[in-house]
Amino acid sequence: MKMNRRGLLGLFGASAALGGAVEAAAGAAPSVAFVHGVASGDPGTDRVILWTRVTPAEGVSAPVNVAWRVLEGEGDRVVASGRFETGADRDYTVKVDATGLRAGRDYRYDFTVGEIRSPMGRTRTLAAEGAAPVNLAVVSCQLYPGGLFNAYEVIAALPSLDAVVHLGDYIYEYGAEDDAYGMATGAKLGRTPEPRHEIVSLADYRVRHAQYKTDADLQAAHARAPFICVWDDHETANDAWLHGAENHQPETEGDFAVRKAAALKAYYEWMPIREAAPGALKEAIHRSFHFGDLASLMMVETRLTGRTEPLAYEKDLTAKDGPDGEPVLDLEAFHAKLNDPSRDLMGQAQRDWLKGELAASKAKGRPWQVLGNQVVMARVAGPDVAKTLTPEQVQGLMAMVPEAYRDQLEQALFLFSLGMPFNLDAWDGYPAGRERLYAAFAEAGVQPIVLAGDSHAFWVNELKDAKGERRAVEFGTSAVSSPSISDAVGGFPLGPLLMQANPEVRFCDQSAKGFILLTLRPDMAEAALMQVSTIFAKPFEVTALKRMRVRAADGVLTEA
């Protein structure tokens, strides 16, 4: 299937969002433009969040009164409407919880200021009953300088789509220095982050969100269907946890709590997500969505509410004196840290909530429980290449790796020869917390479909607990545009090596970019791993890299 943007944006009215400032009629409200498109999210059976942002004319700082409406059917029959006043205190964003809608219906919506009208968006409410098929596009990791958002062009053109499930890394915090993440590509494509420095303040995060929402393909996808989102780490800073982040230096960047508060304020302003309840933690965005009698989607938060500090090999894998007095790696001490029972990603309160939601969904007779989770859950050891390849084969593969990354890969392969986890920032860095989660699955009597992002790779995994009992199926989506490990290590066959080394890994591709199209039916779930041929140009091709099915009756996973 060949994709080309021509005519696509016009279909959704998004082309109107790409022009310059628009003048209002004489005597109307201050001149504004809708340069960031429209979006919807967090659908319910009778409501949905509607979002846009008005850009006031230069020099205007007064509040702006925005009218909104929801239309049903092909005509102009308005079924909900109202007004929303926005201003500088919320960066001129508009967020409306449109209520009084009918379950399982398609709607259109738009916004106006005076005579100036926004693009028209499409959205859909959740079904209250029945088991009609549900189509979900699952995405993650969209680095603006990393490449074009071609996956969103495909998503915007899907003929049937109930929601887009975004698993995090909607924005990235890095700057535009020559050696900054993704800038080798960004400089070639003219996709330079704004502001040009690493974002830390509220103003910085607002500008970065605003830049991402000028992307035409992202606008088209937002205008196509409601988004159901959670953040991962880059919405604040790389490898974020409860009290800090790898990419936060308190000496020069201040208190992490202040930075986190700024990042979350901008996120709530710029994303079509329902606001936290009064008095509730803004970090606690775990919530559920029920698709009639067919499925429940539970979105969990694994970064800012319960995650203990991540381990890192460079600081936590220390040396001790060996038998001959020479230093050796203290593997026993490292594994003691790794398996510390206090290590967790989620926390007990959220886990109890999740267990209750899973059990309630099963009690309602829904065949599918789906977990919207940020990081890979499977047990994935790094590949010990000496067990599967000859020294000559290893030498040949290493010769294909760019010199700039060869030392890093050699160090990683050495650690993997010791049986170390592939990624300590994933659930593998929190094995005790993962066992507690698997116990919650078992107590609820379910084997859910786990969705994962973060890794910039496609995964199909069968999840088992420490005793070898099967607990879930996992589908991991690759990045929309963020670099994959294989982008750095060239022809090194990392995906196949991980499959050989790990019984839980049924499929792994460490180079393709795209998204997952998850289709749920009463008897079967199908995950199509959708690959775009390039993120560096248009037009492009889109193909299904792999199709997998899960039977509702027994949870058996097979190729489609």
Automatic annotation (TrEMBL):
Keyword Signal in annotation = yes
What keywords would UniProt list here? Hydrolase, Signal
| Top enzyme class | hydrolase
Q: At the top level of its lineage, which domain of life is listed?
A: Bacteria
Which PROSITE patterns does the UniProt record give? TAT (PS51318)
Gene3D superfamilies given in the database record: PhoD-like phosphatase (3.60.21.70), Purple acid phosphatase-like, N-terminal (2.60.40.380)
InterPro entries of this UniProt entry? Answer: Metallo-depent_PP-like, PhoD-like_MPP, PhoD-like_sf, PhoD_N, Phospholipid_Metab_Enz, TAT_signal
Instruction: Please state every residue range assigned to the domain named PhoD-like phosphatase metallophosphatase.
Output: 136-528
Does Signal show up as a keyword for this record? yes
Record domain Phospholipase D N-terminal: where: 36-125
Please report a single Pfam family linked to this protein.
Answer: PhoD
Where would one find the signal peptide in this protein? 1-24
Q: What is its EC number?
A: 3.1.3.1
Question: What is a GO molecular function of this protein?
Answer: alkaline phosphatase activity
- Protein name in the entry: Alkaline phosphatase D
